[in-house]
Input
Amino acid sequence: MSAAHPTPPGAADPAVSDGPAPPDALGPVASGAVGPAVPGVVGPVASGAVGPAVPGVVGPTPSGAVGPAVPEVVAAASGAVGPAAPPVVGAVGSAAGGRATAPTARTRWCPGTRLLVAVALGWLLLTALHRLLTGRWWFWLLPDLLPPVAYVLVPVLLALAVPAARLLRRPVPSRPRTVVLTAAALALGLGLPDAGLNRYALTGGRVAPPADALRVLVWNTGYWDQDDDPDAFLRFLVAQRADVYLLQEHLYWDATAGLRGARPAPDPSRLRAVFPGYTVVARGELLTLSRYPVLARPPVGPDAVLPAEADSGRVFAAAKVLRTDLAVGDRVLSAYNVHLPVQLNLAPRRFLGFVAERDAARRAQLRALEADVAANPHPVLVGGDFNTTPAMGDLRPLRDRLRDAADASAAGYPATWPDGRLPALWRLDWTLTSPAVRVHRYELRAPAGLSDHRAQQALISLPEVS
Output
């Protein structure tokens, strides 16, 4: 219907509608209206309006119109004076009559959260690659330098960082918290078998040794007595009271000669004097000292093809496994004295080339050792400095065939290197036996400052002859 209002003097013509407006009309109301906002209208009130808006008007009210407020108007635009209408929930629409939605704030992680997530995912990736590549790719000898216990400590510390952040009143948000805890759990599951932990340390129940049990000492002497008091060195050996000694680095080293620094150690005549009744077998840097008669000394690996006239340098490089077959009563024990080449040297210019060459040399020695052990009909004991940690795949074939003597240890983490001021975080030295050999005790002995390797001492017994 038409609506007409009296126009006060000086006011503009009243606005006239073409017909009644439906409830909740969306037509704009002129900006600047003086009066309460009218429910139902989503639009600005006309600029300059002096009077109230006209009921039922769809279009804008002309400037200066005077009349009662329209009950259907919902909101007024900028400049309207009056209370807001109850039905309004969201933001006010535009002048065209549309409704706008309030923007949602995007959650942003703080730098500490981003760092924690990155470390957790990075460690999981490193652990997965380690499981795939160790023992298969020469380059992975470098990441394998990590202390094996890190495969337990790092995931545990990552998981503990979540509650620690809450204690510091910097809680980790839900989503990154789930990522960190999941990555830590997966990394722990992948890395635990390579962490070098002795799961038998707390079980006890070890069988008492028989009266004829053998005491074996396995030790990297650290260039023999080169930097030590020779008498103190011999006293240490005698004090171990071993029946069989498997000793490595029976040589001196000239540091000025670089990689060609190997020099023969003094003649072992003094050893024979302080170990009467023992047999001394030396080859290259390896020396085996036995109270039991030596039946045979079959060459193993590259040493087997070395010509008899080879000089001491070539013998040192090739002879890394010394096998001696010992007559223990009416039984035979094959003792393997081992020192694998170290895989790292910071001196050469060809750093990566050196690592690749050493990997090839290590593989040649290990394959020959594995083949010889597999073909040996006697009980075996393999001991020495393998320069190989529990995390490294190089030793897996041999460990799968033989039994780790450290299972008889009370130490939860039997690390052998370095001994001294720094904590021993790496196990480089091993004693392995065939399943028929029983290990009653395994201990690590401090070397009294004579070497940076701890000495391994094992008490073993051989199976009865059937």
